[in-house]
Amino acid sequence: MTDIQWIILIAIIIYTCLVAVAFKFPRTKDNWTKERKESIQLLMSVGVFVTFFIALWYISYVVDWPDTMFLIWWGAAFTFFGLILVGIFAPQGIKLNFEKKKDANVPEEDD
Fold it and tell me: What are the domain boundaries of the chain?
């Protein structure tokens, strides 16, 4: 792809994202409920997704992938090996303990 085509593609993606936001929040500040920090985090997340999508598209365009059966065989082998390792090192499973938010307002259930 030439540089002009890349610029046009990125401009179209940015324009589409802005149109989607404009349809959802037509009166901007009146309807937009997020703070500046949340807005920046949202824009950075979209930027990372777009960059990741373009990188994957470019890599799939440039790289000559091996045969499908070769990839499936190695994927199955790694999955099987991973399951064996999990069975050896964590036979009871992996338990994740998340911290509870202190300021969370959870409504009480009425029985």
Answer: 1-32
